């Protein structure tokens, strides 16, 4: 009878570990933005507003706007209000595609960064001027306004974490079974 209960308990624990876990709540992420990702706006915006899931630390919040030629567009510093960061755009935007890149720090101190694009398509405005020739950095690659602006998470993949959890439960279950067998004999 005890063996069946132990086996059932081990199977239940294993099943719980195999259920996908929710993302860690300590990591911040972008909830929404104005202009939105991939938006095609009919009039040039005068600001960019990013809404995150958690409060932002004004000291560690960076928001950069660049044009299709990867040139930084003049903006004011990020204004932070709770979980919202806003930059004011200092000059009218011409028609074209723009990239918003951001870097914030989560409550656990982990940096979170990402970027997205939007397009200004104002029928009464002129098109953006063509980009200048690309500049080259010391590493030989093109210069960019924000290094590594893809959304990144440097933590271990969730598959590795799940596999580690399964291994821990399996070892604990095996140890428990060995202990009980030795105790009964």
Automatic annotation (TrEMBL):
Signal peptide location: 1-26
Pfam family, one: CopC
Residue span(s) of domain CopC: 27-120
Subcellular location: Cell envelope
UniProt-listed InterPro entries: CopC/D (IPR032694), CopC_dom (IPR007348), Cu-Rt/internalin_Ig-like (IPR014755), Ig_E-set (IPR014756)
Gene Ontology annotations for the cellular component aspect, listed alphabetically: cell envelope; periplasmic space; plasma membrane
Main location per the UniProt record: other
TM regions (residue ranges): 159-179
Any GO BP annotation: response to copper ion
Keywords recorded for this protein, A-Z: Copper, Membrane, Metal-binding, Signal, Transmembrane, Transmembrane helix
Region (Disordered), start-end ranges: 122-155
GO molecular function, one term: copper ion binding
Source organism, top-level taxon: Bacteria
Name the record gives this protein: Copper resistance protein CopC
Native source species: Micromonospora tulbaghiae
């Amino acid at each position: 009878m005890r063996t069946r209960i132990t086996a059932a308990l081990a199977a239940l624990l294993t099943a719980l570990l195999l259920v996908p876990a929710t993302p860690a709540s300590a990591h911040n992420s972008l909830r929404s933005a104005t202009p939105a990702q991939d938006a095609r706006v009919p009039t040039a915006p005068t600001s960019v507003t990013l809404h995150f899931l958690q409060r932002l630390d004004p000291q560690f919040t960076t928001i950069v706007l660049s044009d299709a030629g990867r040139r930084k567009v003049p903006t004011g510093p990020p204004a932070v209000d709770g979980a919202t960061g806003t930059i004011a755009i200092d000059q009218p935007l011409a028609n074209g595609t723009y990239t918003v890149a951001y870097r914030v720090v989560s409550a656990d101190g982990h940096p979170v960064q990402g970027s997205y694009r939007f397009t200004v398509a104002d029928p009464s405005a002129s098109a953006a001027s063509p980009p200048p020739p690309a500049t080259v950095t010391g590493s030989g690659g093109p210069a960019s306004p924000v290094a590594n602006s893809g959304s990144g998470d440097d933590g271990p993949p969730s598959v590795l974490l799940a596999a580690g959890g399964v291994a821990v439960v399996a070892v604990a279950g095996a140890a428990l079974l060995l202990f009980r067998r030795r105790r009964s004999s």
